[in-house]
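To: structure subgroup
Subject: Chain for Friday's discussion

All,

I'm putting the inputs and outputs inline so they're searchable in the archive.
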Amino acid sequence: MKFMKLGSRPDTFYTGEAVRSVSSEVSSDLIIQVKGSRYLLHKFPLLSKCLRLQRICSESPETSQHQIIQLPDFPGGIEAFEICAKFCYGITITLSAYNIVAARCAAEYFQMTEDVEKGNLVYKIEVFFNSCILHGWKDSIVTLQSTKAYPLWSEDLGITSRCIEAIASKVLTHPSKVSLSHSHSRRVRDDISCNGAESQRHKPTTKGWWAEDMAELGIDLYWRTMLAIKSGGKIPSNLIGEALQIYASRWLPNISRQAKSNKGAASDSDSDSASEVTSKHRLLLESIVSLLPSEKGAVSCSFMLKLLKAANILNASSSSKMELARRIALQLEEAKVSDLLIPSLSYSTDTLYDVDIILTILEQFMLQGQSPPTSPPRSKLGLERRRRSRSAENIDFEFQESRRSSSASHSAKLKVAKIVDGYLQEIAIDINLPLSKFIAIAETIPDFSRLDHDDLYRAIDIFLKAHPDLNKSERKKLCRVLDCKKLSVEACMHAAQNEKLPLRVVVQVLFFEQARAATAGGKVTELPSNIKALLASHNIDPSRPPGPLSTTTSMPADDQWSVSGLKSPKSRISTLRMKLAEDDELDENNMNPDAMGRPSKFKAFCALPTGPKKMFSKLLSINRSASEKN
């Protein structure tokens, strides 16, 4: 850190009987009261350099031996006052980045300018400030940080703006040309006198060397400095994002834990202080959101989700939440399920997690630009085949690029589908989660994005167990999002004996699983035409092996899919009979006038001729005999 010494006389200030005095053969004739402190001083050295004291003394009448002056609005405190007083007496003072702002404000208050005396304190401070302080990195940071104690004075004197400009210029300058007097990244002490000593230079090792030092600033000064850095246009957006993440981790620690502790009953004495802290954190968070770079990938999706979680806890503005939701949607495929579990603190709902904000993010994700066509028009292809030119090559290159971006978009949807199904499994255990919210989130993902429905079925199974009071209509509505054709063998075996599933789903699962098992086992070489027709109507290829069961989400032991005993055909037949009887009882009261009250798919299954029914029974018996041999 740089410093400057002024004056040569030793310090003769002393304290006696709660009064500060100066050792002198001449008796004091001036009493100055500053911030509760009392000083016995002399008029001549002070008035010769302070124009303000001259005017005050000339306007106030002298009383007895001492003239009393009160300075209630003096900036800087008693430390700054003593710097000015000692300068007037010629006593040695030391100026550095830690006290230069207070000294400058005090000198301005006393009007210690060149009009009063040449080489006065204001001039000397300005020379030191411009030639030394603003040239050092750490000195500029410390000086800017100290301006928060005197915001109005610092703004009027241009100290704040000059420090911000100096810091921004150093960040935009090549690191090798920056004098890091005391860098946070190196922790090297560098106390250098400005009176002739040459400053040392330390080369930072990383491109974001400035981020940790700037994280010490308050949010208002940090926001202004970051705007100045961003306006320079030389710092990559990813470095801006890293700096914001460092700052957030510095000033928003364990925000979720604080919210949980504050959620309980708090005393009246603590409510005001807690509200003040929350307001500061809210302002800080909203300022960080406003500084986020517009480029995609500049900040990680996990970091923005943590900001969104903090915004939810701090009750930030809706505009900040929507901005975060929009940015998160642009890179949602990078998210983790745990990051999406944002606690709900709303008094209008008792759900564990804020499902509405996740639904908003998914809607923003699906609103992104549609994928370009997978093939160019035929006429353009014919033209390219007839005559290849440089422009045609450019068209072909653009087409390849568009296909590549289309593939990336499709890949992102596949990843998001996996993330959403994992998220559904986590929120399904919430007994207060409405069925409509669960279905809304499940339906935001297009069908082609789910290569298999095993994870979705697991989420539905968890939801059914956590909500045993669902009626038949609600269970059917829930299972409409499930495609039985995309279930693996293990999922089908579990669903075949799941008594909480509607009958229609069980019938479909049994039929598809038995048909695929028969053909995959090689026991049936050719299926009857009626069965083939049914398979074709559902776009099923019996020769294609089912995909493996996804195990992306861990589950409790009682929620694991148990397949013991499922290989017995009797269990399937008994389950089917039970479901048939149940459906008969429940559907008798819901019959339409035309006696067509059952689900269309189940009704079509029951309306099969005798031949197809026998073939279906034959498939069951074939699997039974195969299991007995094994």
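Points worth raising on Friday:
The beta strands are 2-6, 13-16, 19-22, 30-34, 37-41, 67-70, 93-96, 192-193.
The mean pLDDT is 77.

D.
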